Amino acid sequence: MQTQSRLKRASKLTTALADEQIRWKENVTEFNEQMKTVTGNVFVSSACVAYYGAFPSSYRLELVENWVEGCKEHKIPVSDNPSIINVLADAFSIRQWVTQGLPRDDFSTENAILVTKGRRWPLIIDPQEQANRWIKNKEKENALKIIKMTDGHFLRILENCVRIGMPLLLEDVGETLDPALEPILLKQTFMS
After folding, report:
1. Which InterPro entries does the UniProt entry name for this protein (predicted)?
2. CA-CA distances (angstroms) from residue 5 to 12, 14, 19, 123, 130?
3. Which spans in the chain are helix H?
4. Is residue 109 domain-resident?
């Protein structure tokens, strides 16, 4: 009786693992295909992080098409439609961002990648305050400081955040910035 039960469980396990083996083989094939184009895809994704900025999605698509064409002209292997989302984000991070309030569309996901992977401080034009909400939720655990340019002590708070590495959200930035921000925006800070 016990032996038959073990045989049944072993049979079920073998069947389940056979299905997994098929999935693993498909993954290996997919990864091998991705390896062929990784250089071009990473190049295009890096260009996206550097240059996408404030461009609308239609122009972003045009940029990617031009970069892909350039890669192909220079014989750099690249996917026909490389995606910054597929190269620089993973499903877990995207789900986490959505849970934190990021809208579910590709444009918002691309923008989140620009914010999290970019080397420059982002200036976010956010009339619906979607990015604002997302950043507040995302950085809540890191003791995010939120200030406005009109706050009386904004420079002192900014300096403290830079000194101790605390995240800061500067809201309601106008067309001109306080010149005191320039060294920080250019990352010209020094340790004493």
Report:
1. AAA_9, DHC, Dynein_HC_stalk, P-loop_NTPase
2. 11, 14, 22, 63, 56
3. 2-36, 38-51, 57-73, 84-88, 91-99, 106-117, 130-139, 154-164, 182-185
4. no
Whole-prediction pTM value? 0.78
List residues bridging with 168 in a β-sheet. Answer: 145
Q: 185 in a domain, yes or no?
A: yes
pLDDT category at 12 given cuts 50, 70, 90 is confident
DSSP at 140:
G
C-alpha–C-alpha distance, residues 53 and 123, integer Å: 9
State the distance between the two ends of the chain, measured CA to CA, in whole angstroms.
Answer: 76
Contact by Cβ (8 Å): 134, 94: no
* Percent of the chain scoring above 90 in pLDDT: 56
Asked, for residue 177, whether it belongs to a domain, the answer is yes
- Candidates 65, 69, 177, 67; CA nearest to 121 is 177
Asked, for residue 153, whether it belongs to a domain, the answer is yes
The span from the CA of 47 to the CA of 11, in Å, is 51
Structural domain total, the chain: 1
